[in-house]
Each structure stands twice: as C-alpha cells, then as structure tokens.
Amino acid sequence: MTPFYGFYQVSCRIVLLLTCVFMSMESIHAQPVSSNRGRDFSFSFLPNFHSLANDTTISTANKFRDSLYIYVACDVPTQGTITATNRFGTSIQIPFQIADPTQIYTYATPWQGYELEGWNHHGAPASNSVNQCQRIALQHFRVVAADEITVYALNQADRTSDAFLVLPTSALGLEYLVMSYPSDGYMNNGANSTTIHNASTPSEFAVTAISDSTKVLIYPTSPTYRYGLKPDTVLLMQGQSYLVQSSITPTNLRGDLTGSRVVADKPVAVFGGHQRALLPVELRGDISSRDCIIEQMPPLSAWGKSAFLAPYPQAPGITQLGSDKFRVLAAFDSTDIFLGGTPLRTLSAGQFYTSDLLSTEYLTASKPILVAQYKKTSSGNSQGNGNVIADPFMMIIPPKEQFLLSYRFINAQATQSNRPLPPTPMFTAQYVMIVAPTTALNTVRLDGNLVGAGAFQPIPTSNYMLATLRVGDGTHSLIASEPIGIYVFGYGLVNSYGYVGGMSFIEFDYQEPEITSLDTCFGVRGVAFDIHRTDSRLGRVESPFPSQKNIIVSVDSFKRYSDSVHFSGTLSDIYQDGEFAIIAEDSAGFTTEQQYSIPGFTVSASDSVTGQDSIAITTDGPIDHQYCFPVKLYNYGKFPQTITSASFQNTTRFSIQTPLPLTIQPQSNIELTVCFYDKINGIYKDILTIENACAGRNVASITVSAKPDTIAPRIIRAEKPCPIPIDLLIRESLPTDLGIKSIELIDSLTINCTVTQSIDTGYQSSRMEISPTNPDEDAFYAVKVTDAVGNVSFYRDTIPGFTLRFSIYENNMITHMDYGEIPIGEIVCREVTIENYGQFPLDFGLPFLVNNMRVSMPQSQKFPIILQPYSEQILTLCVAPIVAGLNVYDTLLFTFGCRIRPLSLFGYGKEVINEGPSRCDVPIRAVSMIMPASYGQGFLSQNQPNPLVVSSTIQFGFSRSTQATLTLYDALGTRRLLLADGQFTAGLYEVNINAENLENGMYYYELLTPHSKITKQMMIIR
C-alpha cells in the first residue's frame, strides 16, 4: 500500500521557527568594537559599610560625610551631564564641562539615598522599608557626554572604599558571570553563640538596566537573602537596579556569589563585590581591617583566554599574615587552566579557582575566563585598625586580547575628615602597572615621558614584561606602539582602591553554532545557525556519510560566512528506523554536532517480520455467531509506536474490538482483538490495515472459513493427585463452536453426589465439581451437555467410597484394640478382621504404623492388602512393651485415595516378678521394670503434625554413639529427601520436613543404623 504523510502542519511550524530565527538575526546584527571610552554610562553603587550612619553622638553632617565620587576624563575638550536619581526616584542633573583634557572633572555626593541599601544597615539589621535586597531599586547614575570620555567611580566611607572603571553602554552585554568574594559572617561572642554579629557583611552584586522592559534572569551560586538558591526573574525599566546579597546564617557564614549567572534580553550593567571584605576571610580572628570591594563586570562576550598576574607592592608595616589572592572564573565546562604553561586546574562553567598571588605569572586557559586580583587585609589584630597603609580591593585583570594602544586613566583621590583638623587626601600612594610586549618597551610613554625598558621586569613564559610605577593623583595618559594593559590602584590608611585602567571590549566568538529542528513524518527538517552578535558565521555544515543509516540527507548549498543553513533527513524505507548526524562549524572553528534518530513505522503482525511484508492468518469460524480472535502486533523498532486506527476493507464481516489509540513499546507486542461475523458458510478474506499519525500499512491477510458447528461438547475429567472431589471440564471452544446451551445431571443415574457448577468463559467453557455426599459410600453420576445447535455429549462415572470397617468378632465393629496388661519382654498378638463392604476394590498397599516401636505386623501375612468388593481379610497385630508402668500405643493407618482410616492400638507394660531361694536358701524377689539397653538401638517418632500441610517435625535418638541416616521415600520407593546423615552420639535429635516441593500422597521415612532399621509412614495433604 502507498504510505500517506502528514506534512502540512509540520511545514507551517518549520516556517514559523525559521522566521523567528531570522528576526533574531536582524535584531542582534554585529555591533561596532567598543572600549571603556564612550558617551553614555549608567551605573549604581553597591552597599558600602558606613560605620558612622548609626552613631547618635555625632552631627548629621558628619554622620553622612562619606561620599560617592564620579571622575570624568577625556582626550578632547567636551561637556555633558550627570543625572543622579535617589531611592525615591527624584533626579537631579549636574552639567559639567572639561576645557582642559589634562584635568579631571570630579562630582561627589553624600551616599545616603543614592547608594543601594542591603540587609546590613551599617552594623544594624535593615528595616523592611530600607532593605532593597532583591527588590527593584530606583537609585542610579547616568553620565552623558558630547564626546568620548572615561568614567571612574569611587565609593568612599570611613576606612573602607573601592573604585571601579565604569563601562559605557556600548560595551555592555546580555550575559555575565559574577566575580565576588566569600561573605564575612561571624557569631556573637564566639563560636558557641547562636546569633550572627551585626558587623557581618555579605558577598553581593547588582544589575542596572539601560532600557525599558529588560527581563533579567539570575541564577545564584550561593543562597541569597530573599530567595535562597532559587533562580530569580525580574523586569527592569531604564535606570532601575536590582541588588542581590548572600544570606548569612549560622550554617552559611561564607556564602560566595562568585559564578552567579546573569542573563538579560537587553544589555545591562553588572557590578560585583563585597560590602566590606576581610581578606583572606579564613584568617578571621587573626586579622582585622576590612574594605569594600567593587568592580563592574565585563560581559561574557568580552572575556579572554589569558591574564598577566602582577603582585602588588607591599606597604611598610603591613601584617605578615595572609597573602594577596588571585581568582580564575570559567565560563564553560571543561576549561583547562595553565599557569606558566603548566596545567593548574580544570573548571566547569561557573566554577572558580583561588590561590595566593606571590609572583608575576602568565595565566592562560583553553576557554574564556575572568580573572581578578585581591589586595589583602593590612592589619593584624595586634596592630589595631588605623595605622597601616592599604587594605582589600578587587581588580579585574584584562586579557591581552583586550589591550589598547592608548589610555586616559585616573588615579582617584578623595578627602577624609581629621576632626578637628582640616580634611586631608585619602590615598597617599598611587600606582600604575603596565604590561607591555617586549617589542614595544621603548615606545611606552606615560604622560608623554618615555618609561624606558629598564623599568620593566620579565613575565615568565611570555613575551611580555611588567612595570610597577608610582604616580601622582589625577589624570594620566599612556601610549605605546603595540597594545598594552594597565592596572591602576592606590593605598591610604587602612584604605585602598583598584581597577583596570581600561580595555577594549571586542566581542569574541566563543559560542558554538546552534542547530534546531522539527520532526516531520519519517524525517526531520532543521536549520544550523550562527547569528549572535559575536558569532563568526558558518563555515561548514554537513552530514558525515558513516553516520547515515536508512536516510536521505539534504543540506542546502551555501556560501562561507552564511548566517544559517537548512537541512533535512528523510527515511529511505519508512518501515525501518534511521539515523544521521549534522555537523555545523563556524568560521572560528567552534563545532556543534547533533545526532538524529528517525522512527519508522516499525509495526508488524509477527516478530519474524521486520519490514513492509504482511503475514497470512487462517482460521475457522462459526456461522451466524460473532467469533473473535487475537492478532499480535509487534514493534520491532527502537521507538514507541502509537496505533491511531485499524480497519478492514470489508467492514461488514470483520471488525476491531480493541480501543484505539494504543502505544507499543520498542521490542514489545500487544494483541489486537479482531472479530468476524457472517450467516452463510464460506471462505472470507480481508486485509488488516493499521495507521499511525503519518502513514498506514497492511500487516495481515486474514482468511476465515465459516463452518457449521458439527462437533459435540467435550467433557474432560481433570487429573489431580487427590481425585475427590471430581472436576469435570466442559469445553465448547473450537472456532466453529456456537457454545454451551445446557448442562444436565441425570438424576436416575446419579447416587450419593453433591454437584457444584461454575461458568468460566461465558458460553465456551464450564466446570463441574462432584463430591460424594457420604464419602464412606460408593457414588455414581451421569452428565448430559448440549450445545447451541443440539450436539449432545454424555459422561458417566463412579466415585469409589471408603468402604472399610474393622471387627474382632462377627458384627462387632471397632475403631480401636485394647491389649490390656502385658508383661514386659513378652509379645502379645491379636487378630482383627478388615472388610470392604463396597462395590470397588480397596488397595491399601502396606498399612502404616504411626510409631512403629512396640507394635508390629508380622511380615508372614499377605501384603500388600487389596480388598476386593464385599470381601474381608484377617490381620494380625502384635504388641511388645519393654518398660513397666507405661502405656504402649500406636495407630495403624489405612490410606485410600487421599483419605485415611485409623485403627488405634494400645496396651500397658507390666513388671515381671521372680521369686525363689538363692543358693544360700535366702528368699529372693526380683522385679523387672525395664528391658536392657541392648534391646533396642534407636528411637524414631511419628512426625508431628501428621498428615502435614506445610511442615512437620521428626524426633529420633540413640542409646549409644552410632552412624545413622534418616531418609524420606515416596510410595514407589523413590528417595526424595536425605533428612540426616552422619555420626551421632547418644541422645535425642530433631529434624524439620518442608513439603513445599513434595506432592500430596503417602511417604515413608527410614532410620538406618549398622544394627537396626526403623520405618514409619506419613501423609502429605495440601
């Protein structure tokens, strides 16, 4: 049959997908290369720790004297505007003009209302109305100029400050990973306290939007103050900011937001840092001074694969405890880090590595990284908090890929109060570090003056050298013949700042091409694309031939540097699965490979058919009656198959009863119920067709021969170990049978029977259970079964009763025999008559003595015992007690079928008295109470319980040490279980019999020693 397909809906979907792709391409077309210079800047200030804010002993003016500084530098005279917006949304504009490019424009404002506020309100918990953690905040700054400018910002507080390079909006991106430092959380009154000290300060970062309706997604790496580790989504308008701070709890004192991911649908500015860091924080208790650290984060697209590590000069008197640090943060999984060419660590996306900054090093990576250097705390606990130069700051280290030819940078300066003396400069030591290639050393000029090669020191394993220079406050210029990098920082009394002096923001292609697709019927259609702003466009799209199995692959022709390429794959044979791979490589060499597995219509009516062939099914069926039979459907493929419909060409005779749709798992089958009906004899054929969402296929050619029902019902007596009750199975189940009409018990031929009837499967089968009403009498029954067309079957049988009785004298019926008192050592034998009063032989084999110890049956008698109808036999039974004063008892069991008839036997052991004179004529009276031990070597009890259902226990013992075996035999003498075997000392033992794997019936167990053999009989009935 020709397959049919459902492509229309899929085609519409693929067109819609590709339309969306190309709209995205158009909106993010490559942007011009940017640097830290620009004309438009938007930013916010992270929370600092203003220790005087809650001091009630000083004036309001002094309380809020800490300031936020904005520094503007330019290469050409320019003018512009600074817009400052406070937390209430009130904005003020400050125009500025720079006539002399060698001068800095500085703007300062008190921090209150303009700095973001976190959960630590400068030494006290912030009220809910003040705390802006993970709430939209309005405060921000915007600097706009007529010409390109460089902007730096400084957050200055009492003994805690840091500065950062502000990036222009043209350098911002859509995705960031945050660089920060662990929170400094500690407990009140030492480690045994349960409350957090109010001076604990968190790791933090903030996002500032530059456009309205900017959707920002945040994935924190450490529990945040408001939402823990949950991803956070916020919609920001232009200028709005969003602060995220780490939660500090007794179990999370060192929360670190480094590696947190920020993703936006429009460019945003991201700032990372710490409210007031102790560095290294592991030395809390040994070092004391802390400092705010802040840097603006470069977007992921501007990261590089290199960094030059440069140790900071150490100020006089600085503590010897701890070291400056560097940290490496990875953007992608499997990022290999090398230090001086030696493998250092492999990082996953968002992971970081931190170590001591001890020497000048060249650090490289296999994938993009972000590197930061940290200045350590300057004061140990013994030095106090105000007499040492320098303190912590964080500086982003630019990769050499983003070095520039020239810089206009600022060494920031602020003033500090020296009440009652006049204010003094905050920073007393200003530095710039220059990283330059060896080939450009003689061209490096600072403020127009040649630095000179002698100022540089080699950076091992690289072609670059480092110069660390003291400079003055204010603006500086730096120029070279080749791109160079600069690090700017300054030290004050327990205070410092540091930032990258500048860098370009070339957006590198670090992303593999993307492949998206939609499934079609028996195929797939897709597109490979490389359309992001930083992507280098496609260089190769292909499907390797070895990856193709049962597939026709088509890849559109394209020119190198195309944005996108379409492809498709279609099964060669739709009745088999197929697979192929698509490889897309961009012009930068990044590769994406996508594997596709295409499901075929892999359902047949036989597990031996794995293709489009159908099978033939032939069966007989009745006339004028619905006949249903199963057709097995087998899924020979690797994917689940959903059958949506099944049908026949001639629907008047054939139909499907199974509800659809249904799903068949791989390598599995289900049964489809097919029904047939017709009133006329004949041979009828039809084709079974199944369908899924994409195609239909013929799976079976079915032939039904409709015939009249000419066969009588079948009556079968079930075979089972215990024949009573009798089970009669009545069957009318051939394809042409029309079913059972009636079942009758013929009363005139039925005697002493009770009958139960149950219907098994409707009209096709039934079951009769026939039991003797009195099991001690013979029973007779006869059954008549008629089918729907009048075919009749008869069944007649008998059930022999347990027609056995015992007697001693004529007509003296007994159930037990009493032997009375018997002297020990003597044997007393008596006869009992056993009679079969029924119409059928009774075969008892060898009757079974339960204890078989002091009661026996002389073997000279006729065994096995078979009583013919209406006959009798004399049986002799003997008793021999060995202990005076004890009863001797046993039970003789007669078994017929699964029934047992007992005859109880018992007597009493009597002492033996001997009287007479001795050789000396002295009268002697000897009384014997027990026979000697040699009289018997072993003891074997009757199992208890008997008959057993699940398990039973046997006890056995010996009067002296002996070798012995205990074995279980069935009625035919076959050994079934070895219960015990070995050397036994004198004593009593016990074994357990589990009947789980034994059939119902009679069994014997035998205790065998070198001197004796004892046998007993047992019955299993379950």
Q: How would you describe the overall organization of this protein?
A:
By secondary structure, the protein is mostly beta strands. Among the domains are: 303-344 and 358-380 and 397-506, no CATH class; 509-598, Immunoglobulin-like; 603-707, Immunoglobulin-like, CATH 2.60.40.10; 719-796; 804-912, Immunoglobulin-like (Sandwich); 934-1020, Immunoglobulin-like (Sandwich), CATH 2.60.40. It is built from two helices and 78 strands. Strands 7, 10, 11, 12, 13, 14, 15 and 16 form an eight-stranded antiparallel beta sheet that branches. Strands 24, 27, 28, 29, 30, 31, 32 and 33 form an eight-stranded antiparallel beta sheet that branches.
Structural class: mainly beta
Low-confidence stretches: 1-32, 932-936
State the distance separating the first and last CA atoms. Answer: 59 Å
Give the biggest beta sheet. Answer: 8 strands, antiparallel
Radius of gyration: 51 Å
The percent range for helix content is under 10%
* Beta content: over 45%
Number of DSSP helical runs: 2
Which shape, going by the Cα principal axes?
elongated
The overall pLDDT average reads: 87
Number of strands: 78
